[in-house]
């Protein structure tokens, strides 16, 4: 698939490869959710395109996906995480969901991902933006995360 075919979707910046790497040398894929409703079909097309770019060697190291949920609702975040399982399950090794300061109900969110852990095929962690550096070096993060 050529970028020119989906250029209008790519301009929406529903997801991007920042060029950063996680502690395992896997690529970082960022999904910056916003207050407007995210079109899941467009996000899926964007992910398909972005994941076709890296070499097979890079894909073999796996991806760390940062789902920035600070400006979104919990149900959208959950939908995106489950969608990752359907679109890129083998390549994803870790999903870091960046939670808002006024956090969603912790008990509900923890239980929700805990019961889906085996089915998802990757680990999902909920983290604040300032604690994201526990999983990814600060120099590998974009300005959005401080």
From TrEMBL:
Cited InterPro entries: CRAL-TRIO_dom
Coiled coil: none
Domain CRAL-TRIO: 30-146
Gene Ontology molecular-function annotations: phosphatidylinositol-3,4-bisphosphate binding; phosphatidylinositol-3,5-bisphosphate binding; phosphatidylinositol-3-phosphate binding; phosphatidylinositol-4,5-bisphosphate binding; phosphatidylinositol-4-phosphate binding; phosphatidylinositol-5-phosphate binding
Biological source species: Pongo abelii (Sumatran orangutan)
Lineage, top ranks: Eukaryota, Metazoa, Chordata, Craniata, Vertebrata
Name of a matching Pfam family: CRAL_TRIO_2
Protein name: SESTD1 isoform 7
């Amino acid at each position: 698939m050529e970028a020119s075919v989906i250029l209008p979707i790519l301009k929406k910046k529903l997801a991007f490869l920042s060029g950063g790497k996680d502690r395992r040398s896997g690529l970082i894929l960022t999904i910056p959710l916003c207050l407007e409703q995210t079109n899941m079909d467009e996000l899926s097309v964007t992910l398909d395109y972005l994941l076709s770019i890296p070499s097979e060697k890079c894909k073999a190291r796996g991806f760390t996906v940062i789902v920035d949920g600070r400006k979104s609702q919990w149900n959208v975040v959950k939908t995106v995480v489950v969608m990752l399982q359907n679109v890129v399950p083998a390549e994803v090794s870790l999903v870091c969901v960046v939670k808002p300061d006024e956090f969603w109900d912790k008990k509900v969110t923890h239980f929700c991902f805990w019961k889906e852990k085996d089915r998802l095929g990757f680990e999902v962690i909920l983290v604040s933006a300032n604690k994201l550096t526990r999983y990814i070096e600060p120099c590998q993060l974009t300005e959005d995360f401080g």
